[in-house]
Amino acid sequence: MNAFASRHAIIIGGGASGVLLAYQLLQRSTPDFRITLIEKRPEIGRGLAYHTGNPEHVLNVRVANMSALPDEPDHFWRWLTSREGVPPPCPDPFCFVPRRIYGDYIASLLMTSKGRSSHRLSIVQGTCVDVSEGPGEVSVRLDDGRCYVGDIAILATGHDVRSCSPGYADPWVLPSSAGIDPDATILILGTGLTMVDYVQSVVQDGHRGPIVAMSRRGLLTKPHRRVDPIRIEETDVPFGAGISHLLRWFRSRVDGHVAQGGDWRSVIDGLRPYTQQLWRELPPASKRRFLEHARAWWDVHRHRMAPEVEARITDALCAGRLTVMAAKVAGIEPNEAGARIRYRRRGQSEILSMQVGAIVDCTGIVKDPLASANPAVRSLFDRGLARVDPLHIGIETSADGAIVNHDGVPSRRLFAVGPLTRAAFWEIIAIPDIRNQCAELAAKLAHVNEASLAELIAARSA
Question: What is the pLDDT of residues 108-119, one digit of tens each?
Answer without folding.
Answer: 999 876 545 668
